Predict the structure.
Amino acid sequence: MKHKLLAISIGLVVAQSQTAFAAPNGFQDARSFAMGGTGVASSSPASASFHNPALLAIKHEEKHDGFGLILPSFNIKYADDEEVIDQIDDIQSEIDTFNSAVRNSNQAAIQASATKLSGQFSKLNKDTAKVDAGLGAALVIPNQTFAVSVFLDGSVKGTVRGDIAQSDLAYLDAVAAGTQPATELNESNTNINSEATAIVGGLSEFGVSFATAFDMNGNTFTVGVSPKYVSLITYEYAANITSFDDEDVDADNYETNDSTFNMDLGVAYQFGQDKQWIAGLSIRNIIPTDLKTKSGLSMNVDPQATVGIAYTRDVFTLTGDLDLTENKAFGFEDDNQFISIGGEFDLIDMAQFRLGVRHNFGSSNGSQGIEEDSQLTAGVGFSPFGVHIELSGLMSSTEYGAAAELGFTF
């Protein structure tokens, strides 16, 4: 069960308590991942389509100004310090033990198992886990007159939570005390009302970015646009916690999907005596859309605006991004709105060392779930002879993540 859940990035949530949730956040390449999630003013041309298409037409250092290819870039983040998936496995195993004791009329074993189940149910209630992953690829021909990039990316996200009914705890406690007869625990047993709902939300994009540059009193102003084809998918599967089967989650009858057209817009301004400063603004998904799950929950794709600033010299880059819009939570986590800072040190164009930090100042929505607060990131890149190998990591009080990428520049 655990490995299947991780493989398809599902979430167990109390769906009845929310009416809408956000689609997965935009894809992050491995360099951005290592630099605190920044990129609106600091992306290389190869990854510009993921953050700000206007950067395609910015004059970059010679090592970045040629034909570029990312194939592929991958990231994953996972938060489960309460071991929610293991708890669900343990509960279902103990239910088997309880039912066996009932069938054998072993009263001592029944009471012992009921006591254990009551503790397991109490511990699981409101415990939360989260997992999300992304995959991207891009091909780019940067140019200040007319730059083009073709990109493909996908993200999938979920949260995990059990909804434990107080009546179940009362029943198990009564059985443990010997004051109530025991019956086998299954979905037909009206004494057990706890449920798990599995929700997975996925978004994939295929698009082409275009950008061009204009001279403004010796400085450079660029404009970029990324028309794209977007596919959305959700799975929603609810079952009594005694009979929840992860093999049923991605069945066709629990799926909804849709496809639509959308667009990203971006601008950038390069200035300074040595053109060392870049300021950027990116608006992703300018056309609001949504997709309803089987029960009518709405997975929203809303416009997301971010500003950024970057300072680059020969061997280092410092950059910062600020989300102008707050993004709704997916399942049981806080809404998120990040301020991000990142840095990169380039060692003789052969190795890059990166650090970053990002802080969520979005509002708490009272979900009592995953709290995305401050995250620390780091990474290293190797770039011999135009080959780029990127490795990155993320850590916070609740979440861990990693990213990897293979790229080429010519």
The chain has a mean pLDDT of 88.
